[in-house]
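Hey L., structure's done. Input below.
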Amino acid sequence: MQSHTSEYICSLLEGACDAFKIERCKWRSLTTDNANNMKAASNLFLGKGRHVSCFAHTIHLVVDNVVKEISSFSNVLDKVKKIVTHFKHSPAAMDMLRKLQKDEGVSEGRIRTLVQSVDTRWNSCLDMLISFLSLSNKVAIVLINRASSVKGLPDMLTSNEIYLCQDFCDFLKPFKEATEKISGDNYVTVSMIIPLIALLVEKIRNLNVASNEGILTKELLLKVSEDRFKSLQCNKILAKSSMLDPRFKKLYLPPLIASEVVRDIVSEISQKISEDSLTESANPFNDEHTLCESEGFQEAHQRSIALRQTTREVPQNQELSLFLSLPFASWESDPITFWTSQKETFPVLAELAIGYLITPGSSVASERLASAIKCVVADTRSRMTDTHVTQRVFLKSLKKEFWT
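Output:
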């Protein structure tokens, strides 16, 4: 198997461009996980400054670092994991847990179960703790009843350890919420990264904790978050995307970065106008000057002047200034819809904004695709061709309405 060096990954990206006839100049950025070989491959493929790190993966790294750093939490998590493992491996224990819920009148479809934590699955640690805390009283009853007949049962958590789990859940919930927000693939995500960082850090700062472990966790979360998120907050692609999103604009950008982003956007607008002007001057018979059958030279000339004034002779920063003066859009609104509907008002800025906002903020979509391939392509189908694999994955990706 070929070693996944940056050069090899770059060659795969180039091959994909050739296969799908995609010009490399149309790539504004590349979103991957935080692996060094992926970052290096992006630099080789597109040049420096055009790589976007998967925000969901970065959040996972923050949580994982804190869990491993604080021994008290690690010990409690290990105890919870042993309890969950016992129930997963013991049908008798699981049946008793189900019976206790049925005795309280819980219907069959609402009976809860324990969730196991998996290191490679984001947020599974929080899911395990939430499921355990919701059933902790019943889990304790099952362990007590089985203590006389089963050897080697895991120890139940003490009351202090349960309180510790509750504090830890309070810390992890904002990170799970941010992960879910950034993991969508049917809406704009790249512009949400910097705002989510600011809101996430603010939530952690405002959490009230009393225990020494909770205070230590809070301080460590803030420190690790600052270290991990610093490079994202300084990423020009993320900053420009946030600036060009009508929901956020400069709201979450530090003043110095906001000033730099404004200068860069104005420069890009100027460059775009210059390129369009050169294209027009090189083609004097373009569509703007084409005569209608019933239109005379004078009318055509006046139409050309009006068209030029509305679309080409806009001062470089006028579009951006007008956009920034508009009220903020609601969180639920779609930035792409906004810019599509405002192309006449912002002819240059709209094209620039859409180019940035279509960048994915995480690599979750590609990982979902990899999972889909595993679901639709069984190991026993060894003679299935690439074409058939592509067709099966495409059919699985279709929404339900296309099958009715």
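The chain is about 65% helix and 0% strand. The radius of gyration is 28 Å.

-- N.
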